[in-house]
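[audit] Reproducing an earlier prediction to check determinism. Same input, same settings, fresh worker. If the tokens differ from the archived copy the diff job will pick it up downstream; this log only records the rerun itself.
[audit] input (502 residues):
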Amino acid sequence: MEKFYITTPIYYVNDVPHIGHAYTTIAADIIARFKRIFGYKVFFLTGTDEHGKKIEKAAEEKGISPKELADETHKRFKELWKVLNISYDKFIRTTDPEHEEAVIYFWKKMKEKGDIYKGKYVGWYCIPCESFFPSSQVEDGKCPSCGRPVEVLEEESYFFSVQKYKDRLKEFITKSNFVKPDFRQREVLNALNDIGDISISRPRNRVQWGIPVPDDENFTIYVWVDALINYVSALGYPDGDKMEFWPADIHLVGKDILKFHALYWPMFLMSVDLELPRLVFAHGWWKVQGQKMSKSLKNVVDPFEISSVFGADALRFFLFRETPFGQDGDFSEEAIKSRYENDLAKDFGNLVLRVAKFAESNFPSGVRKLGLPSFGDFSPQELLSLWKRAIENIDLFSALSYFSSLVAFSNKFIDSQAPWSKLKMGKVEDAEKIIYNLSYLIKIITFMIYPFCPETALKISRSFGFHSLLDDSNPKTIQDIVNYDEVFRVKSTGVLFPKIGG
């Protein structure tokens, strides 16, 4: 069985989860579900990043220890993943003892390779980003990443020898299409030209909450070194049984942390002689009325709240139907309500309900195959193949566009064929043929929506009697999906997307 390894970033526990965390994690879940159902042995990793100055500071403000903060906050992420039907295989915490041991082992390997040395650092430092920035990137004393004030720091530090790996990494990125979307790859190559050796430690008197540098407890390992190693520590690095999944097939990240994953992480891996990930995919941000979400602007979208109003499937659908994955999107309750009422309730839900009710009322013993379905020049099989290719290319927006196209065709088909009219004329077999064709289309539609809206898809599959289609313990091919059932035994689904507030 072919293996597939997908990761989200690990999320800081200095605050509660927001829509950005949900966005990345749902995307990973969509791809993981898709791969599983096509027969891959999947390992899907997510978790929380629990070390560093940010956590220290947030805990201090609450009057609790950093570990107490982490123990409290990481549960909120787990709760949200349950609400959103996230099918992760492992949830890692960087305070896990196994992770800390792996980080120390990894550090020692880089040191043995001659890639870590001690020196002095002078530069602009941003506490929220836990990063140094060169003067060329700092304007008006503000961090180029988050826009908050930076301060000048001069301190001893351990450094990683970037120069040793720059040419090798440049060649790898260029030849392998390592970063997607393509315009992000160009950004990474430009950034690679400008980076020098990087500081990978912090003085312990300034950052206490972290993993001590081996053999020098005056320093803490830089949180980004610690965090990135989670992708292998979760597999049991250096010799755990899950290391069979390495290298990662996809690291999904937000665009703001791309440089850590596409520049620093590959060089660290080169240093310890591990294979590089196959792809880093950087998506955009969700904004509100064109502005980045922030607590100070009070415009942070709470995924718990949105899910409680519209349901998890509607949120999952909206995030990937509203804007192409990779670009920035603009979130509003009006937009999600429109997608809910039109795309989901009116177009999709109403189609399924009409067909199910008609089939249950008029063909209670089952809708038989009375000849092969025919749709003229239209090919649902071809649309399904395009959908599959889109998800393989992480084009989740196009995948849902193909789904919507099939829903639109099916609605036109039921209206033009008018099976109720055939019944009135006594043409029962003609009506049954039409309902069979529609049930066949709904079977393909349900498969297409399953990775995005698993709860809804499972409900439809049970109503139409093809629930085995969504059983990922029995791998599928395109041919399996487009095969014709002998009979559809249909029970009404009920209303799939109830009126909001009704």
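[audit] rerun output stored. Observation attached for the diff report: The first strand starts at residue 3 and ends at 12.
[audit] end
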